[in-house]
Amino acid sequence: MVAAVTEKPASPRTRSSAPQRRRDVVAAVVELARERGPEGITTQAIADRVGVTNGALFRHFPDKLAMWSAVFDWVEERLEAVVDDAFRGGGDPIEVLERVFLAHVRFVSGHPGVPRILFHELQRPADSEFRDRVRKAVRGYRKRIGELLAQAKRAGLLPATLDEEAAAVLFIGTVQGLAVQSTLFRGEAGMNAAARRLFPLLLDGFRGPHR
Fold first, then answer.
1. For a 10 Å CB count at each end of the chain, is N or C smaller?
2. Rounded Cα gap, residues 82 and 48, in angstroms
3. Exposure of 136 by Cβ count < 10 A (0-12 exposed, 13-18 middle, 19+ buried)?
4. How far, CA to CA in Å, does 75 sit from each of 26, 119, 152?
5. Taking Cα atoms as reference points, which of 201, 195, 208, 199 lies closest to residue 153?
6. Under 8 Å between Cβ of 46 and 28
């Protein structure tokens, strides 16, 4: 698993190992995506952020496509690890659902370049390897949330009439909506507090009208 992208890129005078340099490149891309959007990231900008020459980048990656592949690897692995940890925390299905929701938002707020990278890829007019990867990851995540909602229904915590597939779409869409809001207004710092306020409203929607 690729290490978390919380480390500062090495200084120009620091000689790093090849694996560390590749992690530095991934970190630089995620940071730059937040600052200028994925479409504005050049290899020169990555090299400047890492503190190496443009040519030195290609001693660690054969081309720019390979750099982006490493970024997508990191996003998939880190988000999967965050969600897995939330699922393993125990408790009833509603408690797990809330923990997954808050953990997902916490990941996005900590790495605001990630949703920009994913949205950018999904907006491309033609299919690509990365777009297919994003779709596959979202489908898998949506399935896990749907199964969790089905467990909550069987436990009597949610109405038996709840459409868990539609509810899973709404769950993920709420996280995406928070990500879009933070991108528009540079509000990453408030995402976690907003998520704590939104989850009870989301849950009320799942439960339906009070009788």
1. C
2. 30
3. exposed
4. 10, 13, 29
5. 208
6. yes
d(CA 147, CA 87): 12
Q: Are the beta carbons of 31 and 7 closer than 8 angstroms?
A: no
C-alpha of 196 from chain center? 18
Supply the DSSP symbol for 158: S
Question: C-alpha angle 98/101/104, rounded to 5°?
Answer: 145
Ranges of H-type helices in 10-163: 18-36, 43-50, 54-57, 64-87, 93-110, 113-122, 129-154
pLDDT value for 210 = 61
User: How do residues 112-153 score in pLDDT, each as one tens digit?
Assistant: 889 888 888 877 767 778 888 888 999 999 999 999 999 999
pLDDT of residue 199: 97
Question: What pLDDT digit, counting tens, does each position of 69-119 carry?
Answer: 999 999 999 999 999 999 998 899 999 999 999 999 999 999 988 988 888
- Which residue's structure tokens are 């009788």? 211
Contacts (Cβ under 8 Å, ≥6 apart) of 105: 175, 178, 191, 192, 194, 195
Q: What are the CA-CA distances from residue 106 to residues 12, 59, 148, 159 (Å)?
A: 31, 34, 20, 28
Residue keyed to tokens 């890829």: 121
Helix, strand or coil, per DSSP, at residue 112: coil
- Spatial neighbors of 68 by CB under 8 A, at least 6 apart, are 29, 130
